Amino acid sequence: MTAVTVYSTGRGCVRCTLTCRKLSEAGIPFRVVDLTTQADSRTRKHLTDDLGYSEAPVVIVDDQPDQHWAGFRPDLIDRLAAGIPHTGRDESR
């Protein structure tokens, strides 16, 4: 089963909360990494410099690291739950 990592800016992030709720509802296992307390500078650098994201949450499909996006994207979560891949970076950026 597909699992994801959600890089979050904490409990106060509405988009992060909505993303986690939608993942739960879709039955997709996930883990949360709080960027304010748990992530090291290497992780932050990867998300911002390598992947180009500047907003949370950043969602990365664990077994397909090229499949990732930022923000609350219920459409992409639905696609993931249906087994339809989203390849590459978030096209809405």
Secondary structure layout plus pairing:
Elements (H helix, E strand, L loop, with lengths): L3 E5 L5 H13 L3 E5 L6 H10 L7 E4 L6 E3 L3 H8 L12
Parallel strand pairs: 1-2
Antiparallel strand pairs: 1-3, 3-4
Helix pairs in contact: 1-3
Strand content: 15-25%
CATH classification class: Alpha Beta
Helix content: 25-40%
How would you spell out the order of helices and strands? Answer: EHEHEEH
End-to-end Cα distance: 28 Å
Largest sheet: 4 strands, mixed
Per CATH, the superfamily is Glutaredoxin
The tally of domains stands at: 1
**Reported CATH architecture:** 3-Layer(aba) Sandwich
List keywords for this structure.
globular; alpha+beta; Glutaredoxin; single chain; 93 residues; 33% helix
What is shown here, in short?
This protein is α+β, with helices and mostly antiparallel strands and 93 residues long. The protein has helices at residues 14-26, 41-50, 74-81, and strands at residues 4-8, 30-34, 58-61, 68-70.
Overall description:
The chain has 93 residues and is α+β, with helices and mostly antiparallel strands. It has a single domain (4-81), classed as Glutaredoxin, CATH 3.40.30.10. The chain contains three helices and four strands, in the order βαβαββα. It has helices spanning 14-26, 41-50, 74-81; strands spanning 4-8, 30-34, 58-61, 68-70. Strands 2-1-3-4 form a four-stranded mixed sheet, covered by helices on one side. α1 (14-26) links the parallel β1 and β2. α1 (14-26) packs parallel to α3. The protein is globular and about 35 Å long. The protein starts with a strand and ends in a 12-residue tail after the last helix. The model has no long low-confidence stretch (mean pLDDT 89).
